[in-house]
Specification:
With 522 residues, the protein is of the alpha/beta class. The chain contains 15 helices and 12 strands. The strands form 2 sheets. Strands 1, 2, 3, 4, 5, 6, 7, 8, 9 and 10 form a 10-stranded mixed sheet that branches. Strands 11-12 form a two-stranded antiparallel ribbon. Helix 8 packs parallel to helix 9, helix 8 packs parallel to helix 11 and helix 9 runs parallel beside helix 10. 49% of the residues are buried. InterPro entries: HDAC_I/II, HDACs, His_deacetylse_dom, His_deacetylse_dom_sf, Ureohydrolase_dom_sf.
Length: 522
Amino acid sequence: MCSIISFNSNCGIIFLFYLLAVSILFLCLSLGDIGNYYYGQGHPMKPHRIRMTHNLLLNYGLYRKMEVYRPSKAGYDDMTKFHSDEYIKFLQSIRPDNMLDYTKQMQRFNVGEDCPVFDGLFEFCQLSAGGSVAGAVKLNKQQTDIAINWGGGLHHAKKSEASGFCYVNDIVMGILELLKYHQRVLYVDIDIHHGDGVEEAFYTTDRVMTVSFHKYGEYFPGTGDLKDIGAGRGKHYAVNCPLRDGMDDECYEKIFKPVVSKVMETFRPGAVVLQCGADSLSGDRLGCFNLSLRGHGKCVEFLRSFPIPLLMLGGGGYTIRNVARCWTYETSIALNTEVPNDLPYNDYYEYFGPDFKLHISPSNMTNLNTPEYIERIKNKLFENLRMLPHAPSVQMIDVPSDAMELDEQEKEAIENEDPDKRISIMASDKAIHRDNEFYDSAEEDGVGLHAQPRGTKSSKDVHSFRNQPKRARTEEAGKGDAPQPETVINIEDSGESDKLEPGGDKEVTAATAVSDSNTAAS
């Protein structure tokens, strides 16, 4: 019997999925505060995509295979293991109402247009980083085999600089945690943008190999040339696969599987981190590849096939309805569970029209990656990998303390749990719905992997949306001493525009659904 964990609460929730051969730690930062953050009007990065993903996971019934774990937010000490003290202090201090006092620091730390200042910026960083570090800790303790944090994967952030919509590099922090227990860690990046922040952090070490498959040329961030192979002890431990517009499933598989297989054979990592940026999908607002969900998911499936601890993270993705589709599908791959192509009814159902399907169809754009080009890139990468002398080892030392531990209150609650009394939320979070067991629940009938719509909605309600235009929704903020954030949802039909503002009502709906099903609520 094996497990997978996921995460959400005020900081998010972590769910433990049980499989026959692989245990998985799934960290899904969607139902907590992560969906409330808002980069600003017109900004392509929409944290609300995480809540949409979580909503699909709930309504597909995947949450029934999850045990919930609640990690802490990453603290100042966690973040300064990679980032500079000055930069983290700046992120702690900056707010929209005091920006004028930090003009010079904003220029110094590259905070402004691409990486704007918004309400709750530092807490947003804490949530993203906390999930990735907590997943790494669980992997180190062998409490799971695969960990997923769709709220992480922000691979552009540098030691003392924000970049590419990323403020803190949760990936680097997670890898540093994994290095406490594992001699070698492999990082694989399938975002359409080069994983420059992670590569830069480990450019001179032989303990971390970075492998990035990305669009190269006049494209952000402009790095990731085939000739960028690392420096010093890290020479040949940076692997860059520069690709061209129109990359399709077949072509991607022909370069991904051979390169990763060779890397596994040569580097022999003790743990793997996979950044699953969804902007490499067909139709992404900022992307120019032509991958389907199945083509993107094959990368997850392939790395999952190796008997090595795996930390799966989110990343880019700016057509947010497709981001939710992608990460839901890849969660099902991690669970080794098939889900139907027909989307179940959910809070965002109308935004997945007009087909209301899970999978998307690639476009007819031209693939500029010719077979000759792919073969030439592959041969050059193999030549570089042959230069590696051997898989490096490290000196034996005492294992450092874990970055995140259960606080004393949580430990006491677990130890003193009385099974004869009403169980706590923490205990109910650990309840797993087995496929071969019966559960007496008001919402049990017709809900699952082949789910009917949840709650009071019937299948007729699903079909009633198919011919209706998408509509704007506005909910007033709550009155009283503790006002709730205003809900403004506006998603346009155009594939070029995908706008979604944060909304308090979605959190209540999703939290209620989770609580009613004895999973996680906060």
